[in-house]
Each structure stands twice: as structure tokens, then as C-alpha cells.
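Renewal narrative, Specific Aim 1. Our central claim is that a sequence can be written position by position from structural information alone. The example that follows is taken directly from our test logs and has not been curated for this report. It begins with the C-alpha cells describing the chain, in the order in which they were read.
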């Protein structure tokens, strides 16, 4: 149990970039007296006689002790942390003496120290997606009485509704591991991930990359929602197998919001960025991105992920997007922020190419790539007013400055993506 917990916590603590931000910076935690107004704005205070845990609430109580910051029972949270998501965190103090200015222990200093110990226990708790508050207990007229009351932290959580927590997914592979075998171990881990998370074998994406040895210093942005695991896994596997000649410099994986129900354009989140030479940890990132969220909707935050990657790693040469052809881009309105060509590799193509991805390539000066063909210089097709890909004809709409289906199709899902062309979302 202990080894499994440590493995899961390792997966959750790895460095990544996504739009879930830290609620408290290191400067705030280390200098609480200089940031009192910030603490006051984050922590609403409720006064009660005595704190009692609500037995109907899913929560863990971490004990500090009177005027102490050290957490006594860290394991109570660590044992369940990989399987749950924290919703709310409450810091429980006693209001003794009744006037705060008479307190022997500085309130802000103690709060900062407790935050530090909490984040040392689990850094993922430092999140702006969590609701924060303070409880002050007032039933304490004397110090001995105050010491008898509970002092600590309540973490209210919810179970993660996902099948990604089964034992197979996080069970370490039985492989030999030493300093000379990192690449082989990584290869086996990725192969294991692909085998246990995909049913249909489609190796076309590996062939596409192998056909383009000229791609160098690439920023590869991968839709890593449920239906796309095999493609992201194969891109990573191909990179590991051809490490010396791979042109991939950076990876960006996105899962459309880490399971968040309400999405904000440009701030959906669930975006993880990593350097491609981090071979030892890359396989674990696959599990982590899947663990945090598997999409669940037909729209994705492709453009946000590209922008995040560009900002995180500005020294790339080209952008390659591994896209789910059967998903709309919810954040298409952000396309004007992309000033570099995007090579769109369309996966899960049945018959037609989603026009949104054609227009992403067109407006950025990029290309559309499938298992069978590659279309470059999309701007040149405007004069003929039509473009043919996979035997489907697209016409160029001059008034809307985009490519569209020339004829109505029986397969109508891609036509439902038209609503995301409307500039009604907040793009800033």
C-alpha cells in the first residue's frame, strides 16, 4: 500500500504547466506579514462555539495542535489523495484571547506556517480551484480550555469519477531499472500504457512522423482525451524508439480541463507541458494526464493548449498538433493569437476532415496531414474556390474567409462545429 501511494503521489507531483494556478506563491507563504490583505481576501472567517466534523461530509482532519504548524497525521490524507479531489480546505483556530491583537502567536505567521506544511505534504493542494476559509472557535475563555479544542485543517473532498484508478494502470512494470536502461524502461512503460488503454491499433501516426525527418525542434501538442490515448502514446513511443533522430523538443498534453464541469474559453486548463528529453518521467506523465481528466465532452481546448505551449517553450521551430478529427475546438476564437504555422495531424478520420482543423492550418499558414495525404499552401486553393481532401470537396467562403463543406453530408457532426466560429467568446 505504501509503495503504491508513493507512486501515485509521484505521478501527481511532477512538474507541468496547466491553467490551474497556485493559490499561494512562495513569497506569500514565506512572508505572511507582508501579505495580510491577500490572506484576508482569500480566507472568509466564520465564528462558531466549537468545531465538530460533519459525519455526512467526506473530509479528512489534519491535526496541528494548539499554536503549532506541524501536521501530526499526514498519512490520513496521503492514503486517499490519489483517489479524490479536494474541494474545500478549512483552517480551524481558537479565538483566544477574544481580541486578536492579544494573541501571543501571530495569526498570519501561524497561518503561513500551516500552509507551508500542508503543501509540503501535498503540493497539489496549492490550487485556485479549491475554496479556502477559516473557522474560529469561541468556546474558550481560558488557555487550558482552548488547548482542548481541535486545531488543524479540514480537507473536504469528492471521489474522482474515473476508471483510471484501477490497479493495473499504476502497477509498476516488472523491468530491470538502472542508469543504463532508462530508455528501455520508458519504452516498456509506454507500450504497457498503449496496450492497456486502447482497443484499435492504428500506427499511422508513427508512419507520419517517420516520413518527416526534416521536422526539428518541434513543439508537439497532443489531444490526450479518452479516444486519443493510442495516438499520444504512439507519438511518445516513436520518440523514444528514435531518440537520436527525433525532432521533437517539447510535448504538450491536454485533457480539456482536468474533469472540470464548467469551462471558460482560454482558461479551461488540463494542459501539461514537458521537455522531450525527460525520458525517465514522460511515461508517468501519460498516466497523470489521464488520471486528472479524460475529456468527456465533444469540444476540446486545442488552441489554448497551443498558446500555453508557445509561451512555455518559445524556442521551438514548428508546431505539430495531434488532433481528434471528431472533436470541435471550443476555443477557435483564440486562433488570432497563434502567429506560427500549425501542422495539423488529423486522427480518427472516418471520411471527411473537420473544417475547423483545415481553417486552423489555413489561417496560420500550416498544413493538414492524414494517413493518406498532406495538404500544404492552403492559401493557394482560394482562387479555385475549392479544396479536395479524402475525396471530399470543400469550398472557400470569401465572406467568412474560411473553408466549408461544399455539399451537405449525412455525417453532420463536423457541421455542428460551425457555432464555434462565432466571435462571441471572450478571447482575452
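The sequence written for that structure reads:
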Amino acid at each position: 500500500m505504501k509503495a503504491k501511494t508513493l507512486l501515485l503521489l509521484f505521478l501527481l507531483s511532477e512538474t507541468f504547466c496547466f491553467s490551474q494556478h497556485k493559490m499561494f506563491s512562495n513569497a506569500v507563504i514565506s512572508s505572511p506579514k507582508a501579505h495580510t490583505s491577500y490572506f484576508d481576501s482569500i480566507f472568509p472567517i466564520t465564528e462558531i462555539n466549537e468545531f465538530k466534523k460533519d459525519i455526512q461530509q467526506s473530509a479528512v482532519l489534519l491535526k496541528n495542535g494548539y499554536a503549532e504548524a506541524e501536521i501530526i497525521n499526514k498519512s490520513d490524507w496521503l492514503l486517499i489523495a490519489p483517489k479524490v479531489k479536494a474541494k474545500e480546505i478549512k483552517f480551524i483556530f481558537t479565538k483566544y484571547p477574544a481580541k486578536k491583537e492579544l494573541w501571543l502567536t501571530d495569526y498570519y505567521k501561524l497561518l503561513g506556517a500551516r500552509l507551508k506544511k500542508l503543501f509540503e505534504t501535498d503540493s497539489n493542494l496549492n490550487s485556485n480551484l479549491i475554496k479556502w476559509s477559516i473557522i474560529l472557535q469561541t468556546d474558550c475563555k481560558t488557555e487550558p480550555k482552548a488547548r482542548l479544542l481541535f486545531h488543524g485543517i479540514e480537507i473536504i473532498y469528492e471521489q474522482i469519477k474515473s476508471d483510471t484508478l484501477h490497479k493495473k494502470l499504476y502497477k509498476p512494470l516488472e523491468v530491470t531499472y538502472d542508469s543504463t536502461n532508462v530508455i528501455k524502461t520508458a519504452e516498456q512503460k509506454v507500450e504497457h500504457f498503449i496496450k492497456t488503454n486502447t482497443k484499435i491499433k492504428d500506427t499511422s501516426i508513427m508512419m507520419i512522423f517517420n516520413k518527416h525527418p526534416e521536422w526539428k525542434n518541434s513543439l508537439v501538442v497532443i489531444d490526450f482525451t479518452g479516444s486519443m490515448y493510442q495516438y499520444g502514446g504512439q507519438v511518445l513511443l516513436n520518440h523514444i524508439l528514435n531518440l537520436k533522430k527525433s525532432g521533437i523538443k517539447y510535448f504538450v498534453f491536454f485533457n480539456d480541463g482536468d474533469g472540470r464541469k464548467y469551462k471558460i474559453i482560454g482558461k479551461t486548463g488540463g494542459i501539461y507541458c514537458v521537455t522531450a528529453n525527460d525520458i525517465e518521467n514522460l511515461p508517468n506523465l501519460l498516466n497523470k494526464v489521464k488520471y486528472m481528466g479524460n475529456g468527456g465532452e465533444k469540444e476540446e481546448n486545442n488552441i489554448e493548449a497551443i498558446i500555453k505551449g508557445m509561451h512555455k517553450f518559445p524556442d521551438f521551430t514548428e508546431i505539430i498538433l495531434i488532433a481528434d478529427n471528431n472533436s470541435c475546438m471550443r476555443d477557435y476564437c483564440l486562433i488570432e493569437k497563434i502567429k506560427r504555422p500549425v501542422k495539423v495531424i488529423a486522427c480518427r478520420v472516418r471520411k471527411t476532415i473537420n473544417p475547423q482543423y483545415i481553417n486552423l492550418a489555413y489561417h496560420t499558414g500550416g498544413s493538414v496531414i492524414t494517413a493518406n495525404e498532406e495538404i500544404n499552401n492552403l492559401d493557394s486553393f482560394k482562387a479555385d474556390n475549392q479544396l479536395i481532401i479524402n475525396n471530399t470537396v470543400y469550398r472557400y467562403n470569401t465572406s467568412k474567409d474560411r473553408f466549408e463543406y461544399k455539399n451537405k453530408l449525412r455525417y453532420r457532426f463536423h457541421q455542428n462545429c460551425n457555432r464555434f466560429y462565432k466571435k462571441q467568446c471572450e478571447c482575452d
